[in-house]
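Regression report. Comparing outputs from two consecutive submissions.

Submission 1:
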Amino acid sequence: MVTAELAVAIPALVAVLLLALAAVGHGIDTIRCADAARTSARVLARGEHAGTARAAAVAQAPQGASVDTVATTVAGLPAVRVTVTAPGSPALRAIGVPGPSSTSTAVTESTEVPGAR
């Protein structure tokens, strides 16, 4: 009797443990996506080259993450929006959880000196 119960309980326990570990990894990857998006947005806002910003984002993002940048405006000021999306854990994708993603927006710095002609 006990053998049959253990045969059901042990795989269920392993599945719960794997999902818990995947959830922790998802949280870590979400933080890494946020850091990568914020760093890339700051680099672009300072007026540096897009390749430099992308390299900064890829260095901090989880492996396999995509980096998308869009020029936008915030309160009428020119800005840049960076979104970093990672593929996420296959275990969590199997149950419908989307991959970690984060977006950061930064107003670009003006290269003109006020009052200069």
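Submission 2:
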Amino acid sequence: MKIRRRLKRTSVADMTPMIDIIFQLVIFFMISSVFNTAPGIDIELPQGETAQTMEITPLVITISKGEEIYVNKNSVPVEKFKDALISYKTTVDDKTTQVVLKGDKDASYGMFVEVMGILRSVGFDQINMITDVNRDN
């Protein structure tokens, strides 16, 4: 006697709709998330009473709280700072480049004087300091 076996039906879930929903959620969160547009160097600017608004110039020197020097967001050791400025000056067509000096309010005054002295010795005479404008008045 021959016994017939019954074939079990298997249920298969179609994954395509679930993948579509996951993809839409990923796109939604990518579009709705807030992107960080900060310069990447964490400093706290001091308040200034007579601060003026000016255009951003190509050469930005930043002194962080840990007294690290950045030239256009690139970290430069103090020993190589003058060489970096000389190489920057040779690559720029405009020889009267204005320098923007940003520094953390907790950075030492001596570091500012040293940086400004090096800037002047290389030939950058137009040095502007950035402060945080006090708008309470």
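Expected: both submissions complete independently.
Actual: both completed, but the second showed a warning that disappeared on reload.
Relevant detail on submission 2: The mean pLDDT is 81.
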